[in-house]
Amino acid sequence: MVSKTESKQAITVIGIATIKIKHVDTGKEEEYTTTNIMTNAGLNEIASHWATPWTMPKDYSYVMEVGSGTGTPSNTDTGMFSPIYPCFEYTSPTVSGNQVSFIATYLPSQCDGYTFQEAGIAFPAQLQTSNGAVSGVSGTLVDHLVFPIAVQKTASIYLEIIITFVIV
Prior knowledge:
Order of helices and strands: EEHEEEEEEEE
Number of helices: 1
């Protein structure tokens, strides 16, 4: 008789966020790194795609959600505390080994006058528009983070948000 040995190994997904700020008027650069919370819905979404063959639905992609809210992110979050819909943008994953990264870039001419304080990735997601402006998003929020500092976006700020998931 042949016996089967069952082996279980826990998989952990660690979220790391990097916020890069460049002051184009002075050349000063700042960089902040923080962790983020993986949402239950996001982990379920990821697991379901590992379990069955999957392709992104037509007209859907990954979306970087951003907001101006403060609070404590939770694994039950389904969206930003205070979304800045006009600044949500589509992004694509970059895969390297056990890491998947998403980058959103805001040029000096983009999203001026908003205070960025939170972010997260949604997928499969689709931006919703009303009268040509982004008014929402349909999709699953995978993670949620609050910035270690508030970023007041002005015409002299180049902002880059990098969210990386490390699978260990």
